[in-house]
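Materials and Methods. Structural model of GntR family transcriptional regulator. The 214-residue sequence of GntR family transcriptional regulator from Psychrobacillus faecigallinarum was retrieved and submitted for structure prediction as follows.
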Amino acid sequence: METIMNKRQYAYKVIRTRIVDGTYTPGQRIVINQIAKEVGSSHIPVREAIHQLESEQLLEFRPNVGAIVKGIDNRLYQESLEVLALLEGYATSISATNITAHGLSKLKEINLEMQTMLENYELDKLGSLNREFHFHIYSFCPNQLLINNIEETWGRLDIVRQAGFTFYPKRTPQSIEEHAYLIKLMECNASSLQIEEYARNHKLKTLEAFKQRN
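The predicted structure was written out as tokens:
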């Protein structure tokens, strides 16, 4: 059973990574025989991995075709951001009770680097720095299941990011300012409720920027 589970996890990781990095494009069919051969397993673990990816809405099953890459449409992207707002708000409030002085200093460094990249028009680096900022906060959250769900949703959104649809230059200066204020809230030991609400609204403003991008 353990071996089968490991094969399933491996197949899941292989397929998911290729979806997120753009190797597999929307509409592309997943060939079970090929994946099974690559991971050195029978069809069963691969099918289980595919079912999991279907539940995450990264794949969909089509009659007479099989599993294909679904990608993300505007509706799913917006719904994912709404879910992230809730998850990240709560994760940030939990992390705030555990974060160290060194952790807060690191957040300031990352945010300052974001400001520098913005001023130097090195816009391609802002996305990864933004992710580093938030996931550094979550490194102080003891609820691993919560973090796993956040990582899963970020991964789903990465499909859209690969197409360049999620960078909003007008939003970035405000986002950096919001990061700075969030750090201040954690430094002054603001209430968990206040931190959760602010972090949640920070993500919802990204959703508003997406809606108004045109």
